[in-house]
Amino acid sequence: MTRIDIRTYDPTTPEAVQALLSYLKAATKALNGKEVIGETDQPTPNPEVLLQGLPQGSLSAARYDPESGLFAFTIKRRNERLIEPEGFAALRGLSLFNGGAYLDKNQKGGDEYHYLEMFSRRGMGITLQRLLADAQKGELVKMREDHHLLTASNLAIIPGPQRNTRGRREAFEAALADYDERAESWGLSKLLSKTDYLAMLRGAFRLYDIKHGHNFLRVIGE
Prior knowledge:
Blueprint: E1 2-4, H1 14-31, E2 59-65, E3 70-75, E4 81-83, H2 85-95, E5 101-108, E6 111-118, E7 126-127, H3 128-133, E8 139-143, E9 155-159, H4 168-182, H5 194-212
Antiparallel strand pairs: 1-5, 2-3, 3-4, 5-6, 6-7, 8-9
Helix pairs in contact: 1-5, 2-5, 4-5
């Protein structure tokens, strides 16, 4: 496999952090059933706020399609990838301090596939689909169809080598290391503490699991 270099854009803006926080707050309240008819202080999640601050990190561009309910985003102006808002929120969270995705070129039977992996500068090499599906040791996550489609219904967990051990915990550790390097110099440490940043990451993936985790359930014995 060959890693493709990515362009890194300007530092994250305070507005982008606030937008991500506002989306996660609204989505959490909606899931908790706290939206009451007639109350105007309970916001409805607006996925388009997740576009605030782009391009950023390794994300060249993104757009939200209300009809499909999916985001289309690009890395280094390559072909668009499609993902649910909750997955895009998790990606943006991991990418806040430039730990973003890069492309890993994989040759299979004459065909070339470009997979998204996280934290290239730290040598982590964790695929985004692995993080979304929360794959564990000895598990792989394969694409059922088009590898540009990162929706939960296109991901499947299958048995794999025992050496496949990296997952969300390692990704969180790498994201926090990036936070330590950049948050203060970018003027974001007072807006988002390290403790709150970790809570943000965990919350983003919990939201994803609640909305899409049923796609990864397997009946024992089958």
